[in-house]
Amino acid sequence: MQKVTNIIGMTQIIETALSAASLVLASVLVCAAGEHGPGVTDAEIKIGNAMPYSGPASAFGAIGKSEAAYFNMINDQGGISGRKIKFISLDDSYSPPKTVEVVRRLVEQD
Predict the structure, then answer these.
(1) Could you read off the pLDDT of 1-28 as tens digits, one per residue?
(2) What backbone phi and psi angles, to 5 degrees, belong to 73?
(3) CATH 1.10.287.40 corresponds to the domain 2-108
């Protein structure tokens, strides 16, 4: 029981840290000297993410779901400087070749 409690505690810490890091990244993108980079428009900020929603580490998929919920909350509150966050989270099945494929898709297509 103690081990499960420690895992849950660590998961919450990881979720919080990743959400905070994603928010900081989104804020930096918005504040970038008036220039819009890839994935940033006047109305939207795209953030891509690869998570193991299936496979041996699927329990960590809860982190991606938590991040999605957090970004939905930010959008419900008006977004960041009026820009909505489009959070694209894809399943990499905790497989390195699949991760490469998913990240390539996020960068090149989405």
Answers:
(1) 555 555 666 777 777 766 666 666 666 5
(2) -65, -45
(3) no
pLDDT band at 74 (very low <50, low <70, confident <90, very high): very high
**pTM of the full predicted structure?**
0.66
pLDDT tens column, 54-68:
999 999 999 999 999
Q: Where are the domains of the chain?
A: 2-108
Backbone φ and ψ for 50, nearest 5 degrees, come out as: -115, 125
Phi, psi torsion values for 49, nearest 5 degrees = -155, 140
Give whole-number Cα distances, 54 to 8, 42, 46, 51, in Å.
Answer: 18, 34, 23, 9
DSSP state of 52: -
Q: Which amino acid is at 28?
A: V
